[in-house]
């Protein structure tokens, strides 16, 4: 019996019927709607906003949140499979869903009031309201505690001042989840983007995540009522809790990117004739392809166990760090190796490898750089903080 080259250990057999149904539905969406247009979107630097209604209708926005808020109530493993299949299309599509779900809807659910949940979550699940997540600042990067954006009380209102950088969905969003320093520590605020003093400036000249909207946010005496503050969290644990949710999805997503590159390179190497034999008949190509299959298999097993831990309520952030570090490194190495196997053809966006390789330069950087996650694991195993 021959094995599936993209699932050598039959990981799919470990999924429930419901999990396979979700994966298959998102895979069809990616095959039918994303892949036919995504190369052109990347070339044009355009996010395919026309796909948002179908993404919403499939229940992919806030998919793990309860049904009472208009969400799908899926498991962590199902959310991971969603991310994997979307990123098989493009990291920009998965990033849109990650930000909406894990960085915007999740904090409203976890840290917001019941009124805030009822007001925002059903409309966000339906794709009627898009969110963005304002944490990273121009000077901050991997040090979110060094936050300059401030929020001060003024009667029953808050007045926000500052700037945020590298914000996915910034120019698409109707609300921003903004984290700011207050006299009581870091707190989160739901800021409608049409509030006076709030501006978003799209970042251009990107060579990565070109089919995604990335922005800088500026807050100049932005006044919002106290009802817009997320009341149930203070300190860095608020935004870091959101990042753990988003990083979890990112541990699955790059597997999809790697599978897309690997599948394409595998077929190309069988068809491409050099020196009177297919490239796939050479030892060097087979060693490369075998190593890709090995690394994809290990990543698949890693995230499935991580998802089972999440669904059992046993997942801890350092486990997410290990998986993000491993799987992003796996995917970017495979994308680059596939580009090489494709030869000159690999530099065009008619093939997937160069687009995924460029996108993964962002994925391996955002939500914690590779070095940050290495140091998280270093701290875990030694008990010593080297940050």
Plain-language structure description:
It comes from Pseudofulvimonas gallinarii. With 387 residues, the chain is of the alpha+beta class. It folds into three domains: 11-125, Butyryl-Coa Dehydrogenase, subunit A, domain 1, CATH 1.10.540.10; 131-228, Butyryl-CoA Dehydrogenase, subunit A, domain 2 (Beta Barrel); 237-382, Butyryl-CoA Dehydrogenase, subunit A, domain 3, CATH 1.20.140.10. 50% of the residues lie in helices and 15% in strands. β4 (175-182) and β5 form a beta hairpin.
Write the layout of secondary structure elements.
Blueprint: H1 17-44, H2 52-57, H3 76-89, H4 91-111, H5 114-125, E1 131-134, E2 150-154, E3 157-168, E4 175-182, E5 185-192, E6 198-202, E7 214-225, H6 237-271, E8 273-274, E9 277-278, H7 283-311, H8 317-341, H9 353-363, H10 370-382
Parallel strand pairs: 1-4
Antiparallel strand pairs: 2-3, 3-7, 4-5, 6-7, 8-9
Helix pairs in contact: 1-3, 3-4, 3-6, 4-5, 4-6, 6-7, 6-8, 6-9, 7-8, 8-9, 8-10
Catalytic activity: glutaryl-CoA + oxidized [electron-transfer flavoprotein] + 2 H(+) = (2E)-butenoyl-CoA + reduced [electron-transfer flavoprotein] + CO2
GO molecular function: fatty-acyl-CoA binding; flavin adenine dinucleotide binding; glutaryl-CoA dehydrogenase activity
Cofactor: FAD
């Amino acid at each position: 019996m021959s094995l599936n080259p993209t699932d050598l250990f039959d990981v799919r057999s470990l999924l429930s019927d419901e999990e396979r149904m979700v994966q298959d539905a998102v895979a069809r969406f990616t095959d039918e709607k994303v892949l036919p247009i995504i190369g052109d979107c990347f070339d044009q630097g355009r996010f395919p906003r026309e796909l948002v209604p179908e993404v919403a209708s499939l229940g992919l926005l806030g998919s793990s949140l309860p049904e009472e808020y208009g969400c799908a109530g899926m498991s962590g493993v199902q959310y991971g499979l969603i991310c994997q299949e979307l990123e098989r299309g493009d990291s920009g599509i998965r990033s849109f869903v990650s930000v909406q779900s894990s960085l915007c809807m999740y904090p409203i659910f976890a840290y917001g009031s019941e009124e805030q949940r009822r007001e925002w979550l059903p409309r966000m699940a339906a794709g009627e309201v898009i969110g963005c997540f304002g944490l990273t600042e121009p000077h901050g990067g991997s040090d979110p505690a060094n936050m300059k954006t401030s929020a001060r009380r003024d009667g029953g209102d808050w007045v926000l001042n500052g700037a945020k950088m590298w914000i996915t969905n910034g120019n698409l969003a109707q609300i921003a989840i903004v984290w700011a320093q207050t006299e009581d520590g870091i707190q989160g605020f739901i800021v409608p983007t049409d509030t006076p003093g709030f501006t978003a400036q799209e970042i251009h000249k990107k060579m990565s995540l070109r089919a995604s909207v990335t922005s800088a946010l500026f807050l100049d005496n932005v006044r919002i009522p106290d009802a817009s503050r997320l009341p149930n969290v203070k300190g860095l644990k608020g935004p870091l809790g959101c990042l753990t949710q988003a990083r979890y999805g990112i541990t699955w997503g790059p597997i999809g990117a790697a599978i897309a590159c690997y599948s394409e390179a595998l077929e190309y190497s069988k068809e491409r004739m050099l020196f009177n034999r297919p490239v796939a008949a050479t030892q060097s190509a087979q060693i490369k392809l075998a190593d890709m299959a090995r690394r994809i298999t290990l990543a698949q097993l890693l995230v499935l166990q991580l998802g089972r831990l999440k669904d059992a309520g046993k997942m801890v952030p350092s486990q997410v760090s290990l998986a993000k570090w491993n799987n992003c490194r796996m995917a970017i190495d495979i994308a680059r190796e596939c580009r090489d196997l494709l030869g000159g053809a690999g530099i065009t966006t008619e093939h997937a490898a160069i687009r995924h390789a460029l996108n993964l330069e962002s994925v391996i950087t955002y939500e914690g750089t590779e070095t940050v996650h290495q140091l998280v694991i270093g701290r875990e195993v030694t008990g010593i903080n080297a940050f």
